[in-house]
Amino acid sequence: MIFNEVLKDVSTYEAGKPIELVVREYGIDSKDVIKLASNENPYGTSPKVIAKIQELAKNMCLYPDDSMYELKDALAKKYNLESSNIIIGSGSDQILEFCIHAKCKKDSKILMAKTTFAMYEIYGKHVGAEIIKTNSEQHNLEEFSELYKKHGADIIFLCIPNNPLGECLDKNDVYEFLKTIDKNTLVVVDGAYQEYAAFKDEKKRICPKDLIDTFPNAIYLGTFSKAYSLGGMRVGYGFAQNEIIQNLYKIRAPFNITTLSLAAAIEALKDEEFVNNCISKNFEEMKRYEEYVTKKGFEYIPSYTNFITIKFGDKYVSKEVAQKLLERGMIVRDLTSYKQNAIRVTIGKPEQNTKLFQLLDEVLQNL
Q1: Residue 111 forms beta bridges with which residues?
Q2: What pTM did the predictor assign?
Q3: Phi/psi at 228 (nearest 5 deg)?
Q4: CA distance between the termini of the chain
């Protein structure tokens, strides 16, 4: 069978391994498996959200409100925007796919960091776009500027903070860079982990309204999958000027969010105390990782997210480390596919992190 030729150059995205896979392949009891690979909120979902889902479960036979009025209204009030500035997606990655289809075709150019969220490149290759990457593994705006001057770009992706590495640009530096970008270039600011970055350092905070008012060619992406702990519900959002949103809506399929997902997101927005508590615990536990890695003599990338990247240098092979941890029921993310000899570890609960340290000690002693 003949398929679209652009698919020959497309890699399949490698998602974090599920607990069920470890149970099947290694015969480990599910209660003994710890997943610290997909940057999920280890503290579960807000009890208020769970109660709302239980209350509305009887409505799952009905299509959702496709206007998504209530969720858009809640987001508009929170961020001081108009509902017309908002589009909702099945995860924020669906909206970045909309952006690529709205702006790009064969031989269009997309500019991104060397090591960043893999779906930028995968979605870009779906339409035959040329992918341009910086040489630096982390976001280097000087390199972005040089490549933009040399090649131009239809879309620029800025992941702030960056997944999978965890570093984060300062807002002022981002704004200075955006001042140099042509108004016909769409700049996608991926703020999937912005709640964490803004909590840790005010200089990293990107205000969506200020961003899109100052730069009409920018779109801000956010998600309920991380700090709001709704990864299984798949709800993301995009904020932009009306012209951008109206064109993205031409690509969006109807009913792209479920009835229960909408309800969960609306309720999650109301429980800021739960979210802030989770973020605070995250950074308390991250200090333990930084101390552990330093004591071991490894390197880590200072993180503004709910995960940390641990680099092994020439001491160990990350793929082997991740596999040995997996065999012991500990799921972490090996970054070999990103050409990094490193693992990415979601910051878990205190007892989960203690177990990770114990198992990692055991693995390293036997490699």
Answers
A1: 132, 156
A2: 0.93
A3: -85, -5
A4: 45
